[in-house]
Amino acid sequence: MRHVADIPHPDIKITLLAWNGKYLLKLEQGMLEQTYKVSELDLIGGDAEMRQLLDETFLASATQRFQDMRADLHAALERHDLL
């Protein structure tokens, strides 16, 4: 796996990796992680096009997804008396 870039963002740690003919876009917030895979063949402009995906709409959805993931985990822990 090759580290391509760390992309600055105030609330999310964003890492771009390349592995096995794919770009991996890894977003982390606390203990949660989202990973998106895109074939290198789908991007004529290479990793520069992966960075274009990180527009305001995409990042707002990812941030909301982190909130939903956190709520789902918390609810599951409560259901099983693990909190």
Structure in words:
Strand 2 (13-19) and strand 3 form a beta hairpin. This protein has helices spanning 47-52, 56-79, and strands at residues 2-7, 13-19, 22-29, 32-39. It is built from two helices and four strands. The protein has a four-stranded antiparallel beta sheet. The chain is an alpha+beta fold and 83 residues long. The model has no long low-confidence stretch (mean pLDDT 96). The chain starts with a strand and ends with a helix. The longest helix has 24 residues, at 56-79.
What is this structure's SSE topology?
Layout (H helix, E strand, L loop, with lengths): L1 E6 L5 E7 L2 E8 L2 E8 L7 H6 L3 H24 L4
Antiparallel strand pairs: 1-2, 2-3, 3-4
- Low-pLDDT segments, ≥5 res: none
State the end-to-end CA separation.
Answer: 36 Å
Number of helices: 2
The largest sheet has its strands arranged as 1-2-3-4
Query: Average pLDDT, to the nearest integer?
Result: 96
* Percent of residues in β-strands: 25-35%
Provide the gyration radius in Å.
15 Å
Mind describing the biggest β-sheet? 4 strands, antiparallel
Shape: elongated
Secondary structure: number of strands? 4
Structural class: alpha+beta
* Helix-strand pattern: EEEEHH
Task: Give descriptors for this structure.
single chain; 83 residues; alpha+beta; four-stranded antiparallel sheet; 35% strand
Short description:
By secondary structure, this protein is α+β, with helices and mostly antiparallel strands.
